[in-house]
Amino acid sequence: MQDTAIDLPARRGTVIPVREGQTIRIVNVHGTQVLDCWAFDRADPSCCMSMEHTRSYNSRIVPRVGDRLVDNRYRPMFEVVSDTSPGIHDTLMCSCSAGIYARMGHPGHDNCEDNLHQALAGAGLAVGFTPAPFNIFMNYPFSPEGEISRKPPVSAPGDHVEWKCLIPEAVVVISCCPQDLTPINGESMSPCGARCLIFDR
Amino acid sequence: MQDTAIDLPARRGTVIPVREGQTIRIVNVHGTQVLDCWAFDRADPSCCMSMEHTRSYNSRIVPRVGDRLVDNRYRPMFEVVSDTSPGIHDTLMCSCSAGIYARMGHPGHDNCEDNLHQALAGAGLAVGFTPAPFNIFMNYPFSPEGEISRKPPVSAPGDHVEWKCLIPEAVVVISCCPQDLTPINGESMSPCGARCLIFDR
Asked: Could you name the domain of life of the organism this protein comes from (chains A, B) (predicted)?
């Protein structure tokens, strides 16, 4: 077993290559940091992890341990093998973006959508669209009537999720959400970093 | 006021141009037909109606009368101005696709994703991805825990929704869902057509 540790800097996006059979552990080091996650097939980056396909595949809004994270061709990319957090994550919401911050009166603000594309470009990849993200540790609960509210995370420092890779080569991108105008990343509104570990098992 | 009627053939996708200020009425002629809907900005088809942005904008899973349908730049494209159905629609699920039918043992089955791209191609447009659809009249309820179940529609013949267009030129695409292996389009499992009307008001 060989472990690789990758620091995920605050307010930025990071590309993490993961191969079939490896497990990626995504660690909420500080406890209240939301991580917007995407994944692409290295062999064809138009093939991406898809929240709408994942919800259909598992018949569930938020994946649990044992569920699969499915791509836009309905092919499992990852299996969720561990989650030490309370399991509160979001698949409903778009990532924050230039458009959202402009509308909030903060044009030019760091944002997860630009983080995704900048991180991909840094790895020599380009994807002409932004898939809906898997917003890990994000606490936007929905009522039985489908009303969505916005709450700070309930995860604790060190909480993590683990996904086992089911395709030959995946490119995971994680953006440490830079939203500092709302409590999405905790009441202190202080976005911070996180960490990944890759296990060869 | 000038009305344009457009028949939406069963099992196929249809492109419907809609201009700013016009209202599109989408009619469930037979009552239990699910309609997978997309919309694109004619000026830049990479700009599309986005379910994840629409949920965020309205803080609600399923849009209601008065809500906006928002594009992937967080810009309102339509306002929902009328809904004579019980308001049961879906924004959670991917459209049916070649991949889904292959997995069900029915490769080559008509599907909404191919319908979208064939309809766009027929109008001289190409979009390199498939946005999550607005599945009008689709009845896939979710439990408070987020478990999704699959039910036949509860809409009645003639039920319709109306959207007012807020951008200069939109391209709406509607696929009359060809799923005939499950009761998604009613217990008879007989997909049928629908109709659109465009009002100059």
From this structure: Bacteria
Q: Token pair for residue A185?
A: 């990343």
Dihedrals φ, ψ of B82, to 5°?
A: -160, 150
Reported as a single tens digit per residue, the pLDDT across A96-117 is: 999 999 999 999 999 999 999 9
Query: Taking CB atoms and an 8 Å limit, are A52 and B93 in contact across chains?
Result: yes
* Chain A residue with Cα closest to B132: A52
Interface of A with B in 91-120 (CB under 8 A): 92-94, 97, 99-100, 103
- Chain A interface, best mutation among B37, B52, B75, by max A CB count within 10 A: B52
A161 part of contact set with chain B, CB < 8 Å: no
User: Which residue ranges make up each domain of chain B?
Assistant: 8-195
Kindly determine whether residue A97 and residue B103, on different chains, have CB atoms separated by under 8 Å.
no
The CA angle A39-A45-A50, to the nearest 5 degrees, is: 45
**Nearest partner of A56 among B135, B57, B31, judged by Cα:** B135
Interface test with B, best of A48, A75, A94, A142 (most B CBs within 10 A): A94
Q: Residue A86: what are its φ and ψ, rounded to 5°?
A: -65, 0
Model's pTM, two decimal places? 0.97
Output the CA–CA distances (angstroms, integers) from residue A85 to A165, A193, B58, B60, in the order listed: 20, 17, 28, 25
| pLDDT of B201 strictly over 90 | no
Beta-carbon separation of A52 and B53 below 8 A: no
Residue type at B130? T
Question: For tokens 């319908």, what's the residue?
Answer: B115
Query: Can you tell me whether residue B120 is helix, strand or coil?
Result: helix
pLDDT of B1 above 60:
no
ipTM: 0.97
Per-residue model confidence as pLDDT tens digits over A188-198: 999 999 999 99
Of B50, B59, B148, the CB nearest to A61: B148
Rounded to whole angstroms, the Cα distance separating B69 from B66 reads 10
Per-position DSSP letters for A56-106, written without gaps between them: HHHTBSS--TT-EEEBTTS-EEEEEEEE-S----BSSSPPP-HHHHHHTT-
pLDDT, tens digit, 9 for 90 and up, residues B14-36: 999 999 999 999 999 999 999 99
Q: Cα–Cα distance between B59 and B85 in angstroms, integer?
A: 21
How many Å is the Cα radius of gyration of chain B? 16
Q: Which DSSP symbol is given to B142? A: B
B97 contact residues in A (CB cutoff 8 A)? 73-74
